[in-house]
Design goal:
This protein is α+β, with helices and mostly antiparallel strands and 334 residues long. It has 12 helices and 10 strands. The longest helix has 26 residues. The N and C termini lie far apart (56 Å). The model has no long low-confidence stretch (mean pLDDT 94).
Length: 334
């Protein structure tokens, strides 16, 4: 099965001993160590950006990452009949456990180190398409518009599913939260922070969640930089915290301590912490579930979508309690 890629392996200048198929990729044992190999649908410029991001992090001491392998043509990808492939370093490890507090704190501290090592990335002028500073408000505004569009479409449907009924009954609450969070961001120091970070050029991972954080030999490895860009580091911290807290019933002590662990390594201003609060207030999971269910196909995995939205609604009060606790800590401690 791997023989069909021998030409590609030669372009990457590796000799493959054996390998097996994983989730959308091959894990290869090669003469240059363990590698991940896969087809990728990504603009070549973005692949080069990802390569330079990883090399910059590695040079600054953030070395437990899946660095891309250069081809003999000195590109971080190879092409064959119009198909693009990448190869990168890999480790045998497992995803971090979100029910293990120490692993959660280790992953938060690792993120803070990533952001510190990723400050002052020098090639932003070359990769302007991947500088996302200043885009947060417009993105959330699009989400809000999409929520209204989904509601209007469901209203026109003659026969409602259980999910449709659940969505409509919850819409006013979540849309109000979405509008409130967006308004707070627009009234916040966000634009001033954007101006400040244009001078810092901080790398963010873009998808720093459990799937991309591996544990191997008691070390944390940060993998899959496909969504990396230049933005406020608090964006990464928010994504990680939301995932952690959703899986831990919005545990107040866990969440507050995780933020403390981050700022002990990479301090955040009061304005940045306020943005973190407003992002947590924003009902992104409600938008995500609804958008996935309705825009892909209402008949695609309807039970799974219903389970997810019911779980979200059941956590509503606990999330409100966490937000109140975070507001109090922002006023007193940070």
């Amino acid at each position: 099965m791997l023989e069909e890629y021998n030409n590609i392996f030669e372009q990457f200048d590796v000799k493959v001993k054996n390998g097996y198929k994983g989730r959308g990729a091959y894990i290869l044992d090669t003469n240059k160590g363990l590698k991940l190999f896969k087809e990728i649908r990504m603009h070549r410029e973005k692949i080069k950006f990802m390569y330079e991001i990883e090399e910059y992090l590695h040079e600054n001491g953030f070395s437990n990452i899946d660095r891309l392998t250069l081809s003999r043509d000195n590109n971080p990808y190879c092409e064959d009949d119009g198909t693009v492939y990448i190869m990168k370093n890999w480790v045998n490890g497992r995803e971090i456990f979100f029910n293990d507090e120490e692993e959660i704190y280790d992953s938060v501290k690792n993120l803070a180190i990533l952001h510190k090592c990723g400050t002052n990335f020098p090639r932003c002028n070359r990769y302007k398409n991947y500088v996302k500073l200043g885009t947060l408000s417009s993105k959330l505004d699009r989400h809000n518009i999409e929520l209204v569009r989904i509601r209007n479409k469901i209203r026109k449907i003659g026969k409602w599913s259980e999910f449709d009924i659940c969505f409509l009954s919850s819409f006013n609450y979540y849309y109000q939260k979405a509008a409130e969070a967006l308004s707070l961001i627009e009234l916040s120091e966000y634009n001033n922070l954007v101006d400040q970070y244009y001078n810092k050029n901080v790398i963010i991972h873009g998808q720093y969640i459990h799937h991309n954080i591996l544990v191997s030999n008691k070390k944390i490895y940060t993998m899959n930089f496909e969504y990396c860009n230049i933005d406020l580091p608090v964006i990464d911290l928010y994504r990680l915290l939301r995932k952690v807290l959703e899986k831990n019933e919005w545990n107040i002590q866990l969440g507050i301590k995780a933020i403390d662990k981050y700022v002990s390594i990479n301090p955040l201003s009061k304005g940045e912490l306020n943005i973190l609060l407003y992002l947590i207030m924003y009902p992104e999971k409600f938008w995500k579930i609804s958008n996935y269910y309705f825009n892909l196909n209402r008949a695609w995995k309807p039970k799974q979508s219903l389970v997810k939205i019911n779980k979200l609604i059941n956590q509503k009060d606990k999330k409100e309690d966490f937000i109140k606790a975070l507001k109090k800590n922002l006023e007193v401690n940070w």
